Amino acid sequence: MTGYFLNAVYLLLLVLLSPSLLWTAIRKGKYRAGGAAKFLGRVPLREGQQPCVWLHAVSVGEVQLLGTLVPALQRKNPAWQYVISTTTRTGFALAREKFPNHLVCYCPLDFTWSTTTAMQRLRPDLLVLTELELWPNLIRAAVRRGTRVAVINGRLSEKSFRGYRRIRPFVASILRQIDVIAVQNRQYADRFLKLGATPAAVHLTGSIKFDGAQVDRRNPRTEGFRALAGIAEDQVVFLAGSTQRPEEALAMTVFQRFHPQFPQLRLILVPRHPERFDEVARMLEGRGLPWQRRSRLAEQPLDPPDARILLVDTVGELGAWWGTATIGFVGGSLGSRGGQNMIEPAAYGVALCFGPHTQNFRDVVQALRAVDGARVVGDQEQLFQFVQWCLEDPQAAAEQGCRAAQLVAASRGATAKTTELLDQLMHDGKVASGARPAAA
């Protein structure tokens, strides 16, 4: 009965939101792809009888995370088949790029019919959900066919915890169906337990994002981008990544204030959402600044030749671009979004700052601040002061970046722990004493 009730709730929400969804689909192209998979569960039909792991990654960030885990699983179990599903168009495109030899599809929406159909077509032995994707009907569809279920890199913010606590009996019934909940830190583990997760199912592994972060600035991809953009060794790159409105404008203003005094300064802007690329381009045009799109670098390098601003209007490249940066600002942190991943620039030793609203990465922020590996900037003036400090005292800025890089290096190991847990589930059907019996 719960599944049918949820169907009704989902349908009601779709009706209420349909004008907004339709407008967004027409204007920005979102939500249109993968309709048959999302609404009907018509994902590709998996061929073969090998053991299968279905890994669901919502969007770009989670797909990047699987870029570390899937190869580790493959090395341990090369005969298994791997299916990667995503929710967003950008996540799907990146998954196709990163996993060309695996089946990639859109995840069904959480209706009983679509999740059941998808399960029948993919026939997974293990369903792996990243971070906090607790879709009740999808999990129930897995349990009904005897598929094991795991949550990896699990996190549960204070806001989400408060919301779930209001419906604790319902959430507990979902959590008790999950065989493994691999969480990033003790605080998240305690929250899952308070919501009713089986104690033996909860495992502290740390964050896989630390393992996936590149630490070598001389890696081939970063070096290729450096050459493509014509970044000289003596130039100082200020990179504002995963930005939202009005963070790009703030970064432009800071650049304009410093560039006359520091002509070696360059600015790289990487907006979080592709649909905002053209908006940021118009902002740059309006300021009369020489700039270039990353997507046009290959055909017309540095046109105009004096361009000192680069707009990265491509998806899935931010991690490598961070390796070109001397000074970094992590976006999504001056508004209500809750911050974006600051592990990647920290791993490179970038002199790093971000806004005060970073609840999505609270534990990482606490760790970075504890070693004085990052600064919090509350507004444009504080961002100006941070960049000024980096430019006027590059040795101190480099030392801050070094402390951040050392923290990342000391925090690795979650991928190996997670791989071992998933391997146990696939081979033994259990992890310690915390597994449920297979469904009939």
What does this protein structure show overall?
The longest helix is centred in the first third of the chain and has 27 residues, at 2-28. The protein is globular. The protein is built from 19 helices and 14 strands. A seven-stranded parallel beta sheet has the order 3-2-1-4-5-6-7, with helices on both faces. A seven-stranded parallel beta sheet has the order 10-11-9-8-12-13-14. The protein has two domains: 22-206 and 413-428, 3-Layer(aba) Sandwich (Rossmann fold), CATH 3.40.50.11720; 220-410, Glycogen Phosphorylase B (Rossmann fold, 3-Layer(aba) Sandwich). 44% of the residues are buried. Helix 17 (380-392) packs across helix 18. The protein is an alpha/beta fold and 440 residues long. Helix 12 links the parallel strand 8 (236-243) and strand 9.
Overall structural domain count: 2
Taking all Cα atoms into account, the compactness measure Rg is 23 Å
Low-confidence stretches: 431-440
Mean pLDDT: 90
Strand share of the residues?
5-15%
Biggest sheet strand line-up? 3-2-1-4-5-6-7
Helical content stands at: 40-55%
| Beta strands, count | 14
Q: Can you say what the CATH homologous superfamily of the largest domain is?
A: 3-Deoxy-D-manno-octulosonic-acid transferase, N-terminal domain
Q: State the distance separating the first and last CA atoms.
A: 19 Å
Helix-strand category: alpha/beta
Envelope shape: globular
DSSP helical segment count: 19
